[in-house]
Amino acid sequence: MNLKRIKWQLFNSQISLDNTAKEHILGLAESSIKDRGVFHIVLAGGSTPMNVYSLLKTVKTDWHKWQIYFGDERCLDKDHQNRNSTMVFESWLSHIDMPLQNIYVIPAEEGPIKGAALYNETLSNLGDFDLVLLGLGEDAHTASLFPGHHWDDNLDVLAVFDAPKPPPSRVSLSPARLSRSKAVLFLISGKEKQTAMSQWQSGEAIPASTITCVNGIDIFYFNGN
Ligand code: 6PG
After folding, report:
1. How many angstroms separate the CA atoms of 104 and 127, rounded?
2. Whose CA is nearest to atom 14 of ligand 1?
3. Residue 224: what pLDDT?
4. What average pLDDT does the segment 72-86 reach?
5. pLDDT 10s digits, 15-60
6. How close is the Cα of 150 to the center of ligand 1, in Å?
């Protein structure tokens, strides 16, 4: 992605990042619902977005108009504590009045291959997303796209094996599918992400830099100091 299409916003506290992210997401949701009657959002896993999800449960919006997808999932039992979907339900979705049929969890309990095939079907009739949320790992991975791994960009959903971050088996949307969105927002927090961010800023090819967006990418980061 052309580095000029990336807007980096440095925050001086976690709470200001979280609040700004909440407002940003809500603003996009409201305009999308106003224009098209629906808001298709892809959620990030990991721990960084948890507080933002928690803040979102307090907002006033028509939850029936939101459609929730996931950028990646860990191949663990359905209600496993370490699943991204469990974190999202506990911090946000279990607390609001959103119909369950609006929430498209990746069936990663089926294993990477079947899970990816099933989620591919789920996405097959869906156009571009309205917003994709992503995180960044210390090693510059995003979603479950890890450095040194290769993927077929003709696929929308990938079966991932040997992930260096546990668990090794995962399901991930591909860079091509994550890039089919009207907006992309990375939420990045922690000193340990600094090297990966510098690599990205200097134009090195890292998994996160494979994500593009016609309208540019927003990156909200807090370096943890
Ligand atoms: C996961 C992710 C992953 C995550 C980053 C950042 O399953 O872990 O989806 O891509 O977003 O590793 O994670 P933290 O926010 O915990 O640092």
Report:
1. 15
2. 46
3. 83
4. 97
5. 999 999 999 999 999 999 999 999 999 999 999 999 999 999 999 9
6. 19
Interior angle at CA 52, CA 86 and CA 191, nearest 5: 100
Residue 6, C-beta contacts closer than 8 angstroms, at least 6 positions apart: 216, 217, 219
* Element containing residue 17 per DSSP (H, E): helix 14-36
From 50, 72, 146, 194, mutation site for ligand 1 pocket: most ligand atoms within 8 A of C-beta: 72
Q: Is there a contact between 131 and 184 (Cβ–Cβ < 8 Å)?
A: yes
Which domains, ranges and CATH numbers included, belong to the chain?
Answer: 3-222 (3.40.50.1360)
The pTM score is 0.97
Concatenate the DSSP letters of all residues of 98-117 into one string.
Answer: --GGGB----GGG-HHHHHH
91 lines ligand 1 (CB under 6 A): no
Tell how strand 66-70 and strand 39-43 pair up: parallel
Tokens of 19: 């609040």
Chain segment 177-221, per-residue pLDDT in tens: 999 999 999 999 999 999 999 999 999 999 999 999 999 999 999
Locate the ligand 1 atom nearest the alpha carbon of residue 137 and give its number.
12
Task: Please give the number of the atom of ligand 1 that sits closest to the Cα of 134.
Answer: 11
- The ligand 1 atom nearest the CA atom of 165: 8
Distance in Å, CA 89 to ligand 1 centroid: 16
